[in-house]
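for the writeup, i need someone to sanity check this before i put it in the appendix. the sequnce is what the collaborator sent (i think, or maybe the updated version? ugh). structure was predicted straight from it, no edits. if anything looks off just tell me and ill rerun, i have time this weekend
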Amino acid sequence: MFERRSLSWPITLGVILIVLLVALIVGWGFLTVPNVIERGGSAFYWTFLTVGTTLLILVLVGVSMYLALSVKAINLNRRQANFMDSVTHELKSPIASLKLYLQTLNRRTITREEQENFFRFMLEDVERLDHLINHILDAARLERKPTAGEEEDIELAAFLQQCAEELRLRHRQVDGSIVVQVQPAIVRARRVDLDMIFRNVIDNAFKYAGDEPKIKIVSQPAKDGMIVTEVTDTGPGIPFRFRQKIFRRFVRLGSELEREKPGTGLGLYIVYTLVRRMRGKVRVLDQPSGTGTVFEISLAGRVVEDSKDSAGETKPSRVEL
């Protein structure tokens, strides 16, 4: 799950920089010997000047590359520290809650109604832990690329409706809080990959859309053979300067100590990685009017021929969940 990189590249770059620096020092010392330039003539002088300038440029380029690697490593360390803070909080909170409920059940005699409430809260904590562990495992599985035999044709309309309904029930939202408007289409992918993509995006929509979310999922074919799915929420939106950063590993906006919503900073990274692997695109847009965010996901697919009317256009289906 954490970024695994070989040390050969920075070590090789460091050795090259040392060799170039030694060559420059030796050359400079050689030039300080009396009458060396006079004996070598103008050709010798210009050759040495050219070689020295080239070595100096290479050293400057190497130092710049090392600086870029260092900044990238520092940013990764910060994101990993942010991830550790969020995971620690996500683990500690439900465990402390479960411990409290179990101690209460063990030490006190409570009514039947209180027992049922305790069991419900304990089940919610267990589901929260299960969701966190699955998220981390999903991120770890990204390194394993799918084989051809694992992919299948998936009917997108039924898949999105099922996914949206399950997440609505999980977030305990009322009927009508999500609208799915999908034109029948087929996407070839691993079902587990498609599930991780849309579950993370729809889950984020419910999470940040407020107490009374209004979420809309619209899927339709594009002219370039792609199926474009938009997941729209009514949340506060994402500032433009953060719209590329949110797809990086461990990135979450704000401070972990002040955060109200649970998460690990891996969900959108999983989405971005899987969509790119499927040769698709994902981007963040503003709502046409009002506040909110639109996640646009483009995946290769085809329209279901049986869904076309006499004019050759596909007929969208609209479902309120």
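The longest helix spans residues 36-107. The longest strand covers residues 293-303.
thx in advance!!
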